[in-house]
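Example record

One chain of 211 residues, shown exactly as stored in the release files.
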Amino acid sequence: MNRLKLWAGLALVLGVLVGGVWAYWNFELRWRPKTITKHQAEIAAILQASGWVSPNLPGKKLYMVSFRTCPDCIRFKDEQFPDLHKANVDTRVIEIARRDVNGVAKSTPAERATVAQLWITRDWKLLNAWHAVPPAAWKATGIPPADGDMARTAVVEAGRSTVDRLKPLLKDNGVNFAYPLLVWWNDKGEMKSCACEKRETYRFVRKELGV
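Predicted C-alpha cells for this chain:
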C-alpha cells in the first residue's frame, strides 16, 4: 500500500512537472522570436537592397515582408504601427506580389503595378493610400502598369526573388518563413526575426523595440 502511494505521488509530481514545461512552451517559448546567428550579413544586405517603404523615422529599424491581402500583415500594421511610430521605430515595409500557383493567380494587375511603383519610388503616402482602400476596390489609378513593361515586371520579380533568397537563410536560423516576416535589431545589436502570424508574438517584438 505504501509503495502504491509512493508511485502515485511520483506520478503526480511528474505530471505537474510535465504540465509546467508544456505550459511554459505553449505560452512563452513558442512565441519568442529567433536570434539570427547565421548569414546575418547576407540577410541584412537582401533586406536593405529591397524596395522597402518607410516613414523615415530615426529609431530602430523593423523590416516587414508582406503582401496586400495578408490578413495577419494587415492586423499587425493596424494594431502595432501606431505605437511603433510613436517610439520612432522605422517600419520598413517590403510589399510582394506573389507568384501564381498551379495556374491560380495570387496577385492582380493593380497589385503588381502598385508593388512595382512602391519599389521604384519608396512612396510611404502611396502605401498608406493603398492600405486605406479594400484590395478589390484599388484600381492603381495613375500608376503605370507592370504587366507588359519589362522593367517594371523585373521589379515585381525582384520582390519574389527576395522571398526566395530569404527563406533558406532564415530556415537555417530556425525561422519558417510566413507573412508577416519581421526582422529587426534589439538594444544588444542582435538580429531578431519571427514569422509573426499570431498576436502572441507581438509582446516580444514590442519589448525588443522599446514600445
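Notes: Residues 4 and 98 are 61 Å apart (CA to CA).
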